[in-house]
Design brief:
Distance between the termini: 32 Å
Number of strands: 18
Number of helices: 4
Structural class: alpha+beta
Order of helices and strands: HEEEEEEEEEEEEEEEEHEEHH
Largest sheet: 9 strands, antiparallel
CATH class of the largest domain: Mainly Beta
């Protein structure tokens, strides 16, 4: 063990600033600085009940009871990335996922998608959900928001469609210009790529919209961005959603930034060394969030040493 640690520490002199990835393809685990922590939520560490697994190129989250709805903040299994740094004028967040919708009862608003959040009391969601209102086998894109535990429907939807088991996805992006706007997009096997939300209110928010302001305010405050799943029934429905990738061009905390100060430095290295061998969920020093602080976490800090502002 000592020889391994000495060798790893010696390697630090050969390392430069690492390229910070903006895409995670979930190849057997996380490659970005993900966290299962969610402020204002109970539990604070949302990793729960063996509901998360990784394949060779995907992550599966199986729904559990609990959600972010006004004061009932008990969401489970919400992986997020911390935004850190100057927000670009043109930014985007997207993810692609699939599930067997035939196993979702038509009376449940079971859903999955993207979340932008500073905690369980403040968020914005871009999602695809079962059409429980119409109680049909169709699904549609929708939006939800909360400010200080006050829920509001996001007023943007897509037309419904009959889903298959292929990949579908959601994307949110800001487009700069003389009249900037935030666009909501979706895709599935019948859209031939990303298209804007096509419901009765269109798929855009302009600066005079409270939702536009809410999203931009959260991002300026170092929001967390990530994926979420929700059975939306409190009925024990365990529905697996398989995520193919998550991608963004927003600046993120670099991998190995254990203390979340925006740079991978000696403090992060020491934190991992002092916690070496520790096991448990949601440990800050567990860089890859696999439940153990080990050589992989130490290597992540070393290979990214100096990254960040």
């Amino acid at each position: 063990m000592k020889r391994t640690l000495v060798s790893l520490l010696a390697a630090i002199t050969l390392l430069g600033t690492a390229y910070v990835q903006t895409r995670d393809e979930f190849n057997g685990g996380f490659s970005l600085q993900w966290s299962w922590k969610l402020p204002d939520n109970d539990p604070f560490c949302t990793l729960f009940d063996n509901a998360v697994s990784f394949g060779d190129s995907s992550m599966t989250i199986t729904t559990r009871d609990g959600g972010m709805f006004q004061q009932f903040n008990s969401h489970k299994n919400v992986p997020t990335l911390r935004v850190s740094g100057t927000i670009p004028e043109n930014w985007y967040i997207e993810t692609v996922f699939r599930t067997d919708w035939s196993t979702v009862p038509v009376v449940f608003y079971t859903q999955a998608g993207i979340v932008i959040t500073t905690g369980a009391r403040n968020y914005f969601q871009v999602l695809i959900t079962r059409d429980a209102f119409g109680q049909t086998q169709t699904v549609y894109g929708s939006t939800n928001s909360e400010q200080d535990d006050n829920f509001a429907w996001g007023e943007r939807v897509t037309n419904t469609w009959s889903p298959d088991t292929d990949w579908m996805g959601v994307r949110i992006e800001r487009v700069a210009g003389e009249e900037p706007y935030i666009a909501l997009k979706f895709r599935h096997s019948g859209t031939n790529g990303w298209i804007e939300y096509d419901g009765f209110n269109g798929g855009r928010y302009y600066p005079d919209s409270p939702f536009y302001q809410h999203i931009m305010n959260m991002l300026s405050q170092g929001a967390r961005i990530g994926v979420y799943t929700d059975n939306a029934c409190g009925c024990g429905l365990a529905q697996p959603f398989e995520f193919d990738y998550f991608e963004t061009n927003l600046p993120l905390l670099p991998v190995g930034d254990v203390d979340a100060n925006g740079i991978v430095d000696d403090a992060d290295l020491l934190a991992v060394l002092f916690a070496f061998g520790t096991t448990g969920d949601c440990l800050d020093e567990d860089v890859n969030q696999d439940g153990t602080v080990d050589d992989a976490d130490l290597l992540a800090v070393l290979f990214n040493f100096g990254a960040g502002s």
